Amino acid sequence: MGCFDEVCYNGELENGVSLFGCSEVEDEANTVAIEDAVKILLLGLGEDINREGLRKTPHRVAKALREGTRGYRQKVKDIVEGALFPEAGIDNNKIGHAGGAGGLVIVRDIDLYSYCESCLLPFQVKCHVGYVPSGQRVVGLSKLSRVAEVFAKRLQEPQRLADEVCSALQQGIQPAGVAVVLQCTHIHFPDIETIFLESSLKGGAKIHVSSGSGVFENKNADVWADFFYLIKSRGIDMENIHAQGLPDQCWCPSLSTKVSSKTGSINPAMVTAVFSILKSLGEDSVRKELAGTPNRFVKWLLNFQSIDMDVKLNGSVCGGIKPLNAAGEVVNNDKQIYTELNLPFWSQCEHHILPFHGVVHIGYFLSEGFSPIGKSLLQSIVHFYGFKLQVQERLTKQIAETISPLLGGNVIVVVEASHTCMISRGIEKFGSSTATIAVLGCFSTDIASRILFLQSIANATSSGG
Amino acid sequence: MGCFDEVCYNGELENGVSLFGCSEVEDEANTVAIEDAVKILLLGLGEDINREGLRKTPHRVAKALREGTRGYRQKVKDIVEGALFPEAGIDNNKIGHAGGAGGLVIVRDIDLYSYCESCLLPFQVKCHVGYVPSGQRVVGLSKLSRVAEVFAKRLQEPQRLADEVCSALQQGIQPAGVAVVLQCTHIHFPDIETIFLESSLKGGAKIHVSSGSGVFENKNADVWADFFYLIKSRGIDMENIHAQGLPDQCWCPSLSTKVSSKTGSINPAMVTAVFSILKSLGEDSVRKELAGTPNRFVKWLLNFQSIDMDVKLNGSVCGGIKPLNAAGEVVNNDKQIYTELNLPFWSQCEHHILPFHGVVHIGYFLSEGFSPIGKSLLQSIVHFYGFKLQVQERLTKQIAETISPLLGGNVIVVVEASHTCMISRGIEKFGSSTATIAVLGCFSTDIASRILFLQSIANATSSGG
């Protein structure tokens, strides 16, 4: 977004969202309120809010949240005004539809990010918007995307997002009809108490929703068939669209998570802090969909609280070590690299209090007298270091340093991750991912071994592993 | 980008780019200068600058160009300042590299758009940036992307872009080394005079470049091997990286296009207008790389000049029509749909003076007494209507209306396009594409026929056709 989209308005906002002023003073006050709330959350996690990595976190979070919900301060009218162009339809003496009268127009694959109103985590949206022009006029194509962005940049739920985009475009450009199809993906909601039981959390929760107005109001209208065929290669069709009216429970994983025994003891100051954030973003904090949001967000956050994991972990790791050269163990010292690839992890970026998640690849040589480490112990170590306020570089180092003494010191760890903060914040780099390496012992000097290991990751990736 | 990136500075800019002030007054003056220049270009194309579709084009172009070159007004120092975090390396008693001392960090697949300094058209960049931390500190990951963005938002050439990002990061965060690999794609440079001779212009011109500093300065350093293995799935390796020092001619298609006979007669007012745009963007318009740019840009633009194509076309089309029921012609009226899919086209968006290009799919029924139209004539019709200042909706309609009377009136046309204006402007929706339909005669009412045709497009797409 350019600063062209960052205009503040003093008028009222459409779609029933209550107005909050956007004067510099109010803006500043809202930002400070969010910063204060974030400090309370960090304290609730047992963090030292003055340590260097966290010192500016409240400011960064406030900035990111304000930016990520800038849709509350934007008006559709200002976007579409002046963007309607006269465009002839088919000659009167011919039968048919085209141009500014009847020819379907679709903008496909618009990448958006929105915030889930149930848990405050961002969710990803692939948006397809179409309309049928009428009145001999068409709208500038980028406006469809800009209007979708206005509603994505609010606390949302997929069906409501689709409906709001649809109705705003219908009102704003008054065409024969508007169609919106969204493919939404929500990060899974792992829980440190249950993660070791879950079979697979890959890929996130997915839902397809649609909304139609005018000629698209009837789900069985022929024009929907045209629409679906033109987005067909994306694996969407009328059959796998979520039916309107199904309860939200199908969507946000936090809503289907069983209430943990912990919930009762959630720090009320943290819950109040999240309510204060909602208010400062311009949300109606008594809206019923938001009633449980602070609790759910705090519960998610508490997965990452600062407890002395290292102590816990050392106990568990010590239990896992096999004694030196025990009977029946094969000791490998002929330079065989042991690898464990694609161990999933979840973590929370300490700079933005936003999730980052991905996979960890571990390789090692066994020194004489050591035994291989089982996959489940490696996965536990990964989870232990993941469930913290973290940075990826530190996570990588901690995993390597923890494993190293158990094997004799020759370890390589690669972490590949998607950072929500790279995507949902201003910079919005959707496809980007981050790789970090830690090399210990001979891996730091032996390029041939490193290459062998990195090649095995590349092979696993290309085979879809 | 949020407005956080839109800060204007009064200090000097790094990397030798001369400063231009960014006070509101100067900003306004530069914008007006660009608007005036765009008006001259439109007049040079034979356009009526007061027609509704073009009335705001000078303003939109000025806004887009200023935004697309905002990197001239940004400083790397302001981006990385305060974004360096202390992060421990490996314990002194251990051998290895990790965290804030030696562990390679790569952010991969950063989507960028830049403007080609040789022809002023935007080019697409997939950027991979890595660095090796030193001094027990790491930089916030999004800063790598933000710094790359600063240099992408200038008039560029791939190798220079890579070098500037690399050296700015090396100076800004002072790590052990920085590596930058760019995969760049430049739109082909079709020429209305030669397009009918070209066998294929699909996919654009591509180049891979790299730049390294510190530990990456030596192309044969082991750390480059680590880097390349971690971006391996993108089809890049050390062998297919463009060697530094090769002439630009390999890159921008405009540089290898033969000088057309027309070049001598290029409207000097248009060339002067482009020089004025370069100056208003803050560029050093006497920089030698820019010397031929105005000529090349005007030459490209003149492909889209408003001439009475319709007259030309009618001549050509009439010649192509076979007489009613000629001997040897098979007349099909048993509802067989004739299809011609994936005819490439190039056009120029009249709202932004930026290319849009893609494919046209044509389907029709033959009425009795008409003969099928050959692919080359359909392709000619597509090119004729493409090479104009256009909007996709009108292009779709014009193709349908031109073909319709040649076949008896039952025609369907689908245009699928990527719009540079959707990508290189503020909204920056990289993967998006636009589909438009025109339906004439029975296709406007017969959904089964429409579906049959749309299904054939979907099949051709999924089989990579």
TrEMBL record, chains A, B:
E.C. number: 3.5.4.16
InterPro entries with a match to the protein in the record: GTP-CH-I_C/QueF, GTP-CH-I_N, GTP_CycHdrlase_I, GTP_CycHdrlase_I_dom
UniProt cross-references to Gene3D superfamilies, sorted A to Z: 1.10.286.10, 3.30.1130.10
Pathway(s): Cofactor biosynthesis; 7,8-dihydroneopterin triphosphate biosynthesis; 7,8-dihydroneopterin triphosphate from GTP: step 1/1
Gene Ontology MF annotations: GTP binding; GTP cyclohydrolase I activity; zinc ion binding
GO annotation terms (biological process): tetrahydrobiopterin biosynthetic process; tetrahydrofolate biosynthetic process
Similarity comment text for this entry: Belongs to the GTP cyclohydrolase I family.
Protein name as annotated: GTP cyclohydrolase 1
